[in-house]
Amino acid sequence: MTAPTESRSSPPTLLEETEPLSPNPIPADIQIPRITISPPSLDVSTVASSAEDISVFIAGGPRSSSSASVASDVYELVCLCGGDEDPEPPDSEVRTLYVNGSWQTHQEAVQELLYISEVRGEAVRLLYNDGSGMSPWPISPCRTLPTLDHPLCQALLTVWEQFFSAPENQNREFLVIFYGDASPYIQQALTQSRHSPRIVVVGISPTVFIQGDFRVHNYRVSGDFFSSLDCRGTRAENTTILPYSSGLEGVFLPSIRCPSFTWAVRFGEQCLVANRGEDVEDRGGLSQDAERSQLPHSERDLAVVIDSTDPSSMSRLVEWLNQGSPSSDMEINPYPQRCPDVALSALYAISRVSGLAQEWILASVHEGLDLQICYSLILMHTTFAVRYFFLLFTNYPQSRERFRTARIVAQSLYLPSILVLVFDCGNVLRKLWMPQEILRAIFISASTISGSIVFVECTRWMGRGLRHRVQQFVQQRVIGSGLPVGTVRASYRDRAGFIIGFLQTVHGGLYLPVSIMVLNQIAIQVPRILVRPNNTAVYDLHNKSAEENWSSGDVLAVGQTLNFILCAFVLFVNLWFFVKSVLRHSRRRRR
């Protein structure tokens, strides 16, 4: 469990409970009691009568007979947390909505929806945010905000109107979770909705903070780059600075699936619900007076209040505290569990060490400025290789908390590692004007390798259009299906992960080994072409001293040969797993 929540402008904001929670899904007619940081204002404008008739688009048609008519602009999806055999709940019971950041593709937003539903244990609705109607500038004063007639704003109004118009939801509240830059659409809709006093908003790593007297609370980590651009929002009273989790995904650009935000996604709205006394009475817990008598006097303090008359309350509290991590935790922090996993981890570790050894061998044939640059690259690549092994061996749950600070420092080196690759690529391009053509071929091959790594890493954060086209190709051509329609269940999680990770899998598992093998084959020919043009032998280590072998480049050729064999084996293993994964998802589609 992560450390308590910290707030920059006030004492720590903590969680208050009137009854211990269990990991079972919460029934739709029950609300979790929470504490109030500041009473929300009830002075809001009423919605126009025409907004009640606005409908929202569901890809492929309405999900059920209770759905409204369709407007084909917003992609909507409902994630059901139960198994495939569980019945589908009516729309009126879905009381949680998620709006993604504009740099997520459709598949990535669906993956985040699956994560939120798993963490909260309830059905969650997605309204996809494509970023239209708003300028891409990350700084708030430079942004062009969307208008009220934007399709996403109208979709929000429609969903809220449908939910609160149901008779069983007259005394319930609606939760909106957003990530990144989705807040301007929500703010526009809140301004015009007559239900805004009963709408609770939780922002995860917001880049634009909601202004106004609404029931909003934001969560961010201290190193988040884009959310720190709005200095006023980061210092606001309703913004909480969360501590980094020991299993954090990243320091500067964490996603909503980062373990640092797990508890904010699960219970982030606890400080925003107004009517705690009514909730307690509905749940058969303590009375409002009894509850207040057992709580600290400060409304900003945290308390978990347990009903002493319930004999099973303590056991349920223990079950809640022992609740396992979400499935995304294993994706972010993989660690070998079986003998084949250990063998594969060792294999990839050997390939990293082998690549680093090649840098040391190259240092023996450099001089002057090239030698200084080579030693600098060796130092930096050694640092990042140690970082890789440290994170790999401390990904085990029992080791994370023990090395939490060191893991945060190691994760913060991600951005410098990309900058080193950029520097390495520039250094390679500098050597293109060498007189020997074979050396030009070597450096051209090396530049394509380091340049491709930089390109793929940049695509992960900025190339939404390219990622969307690749994912769409995989979805239609490889798997043979489209986006989920109407509803999606937890069983779709594996397929979504395969589609999203396809580009990185092909690049890291297939393209890089092939490129390194080609580069090795070119480098193997260097001693023969430059030193022994009339000798057909690839290298000749006999009848020469060690110094002569180094100066002639024969030792380099031996190292390149060993690296070529190792990369060929890695390529074979990667290709086997890749084909196996494609066939598995294709068979699942045919079933």
From TrEMBL:
Keywords: Membrane, Transmembrane, Transmembrane helix. It comes from the Bacteria. Residues 1-27 are annotated as: Disordered. The keyword Membrane applies. Residues 1-12 have a biased composition (Polar residues). The chain crosses the membrane at residues 375-396, 408-429, 441-459, 498-524, 562-583. Coiled coil: none annotated. InterPro entries: DUF687. This is CT326 similarity.
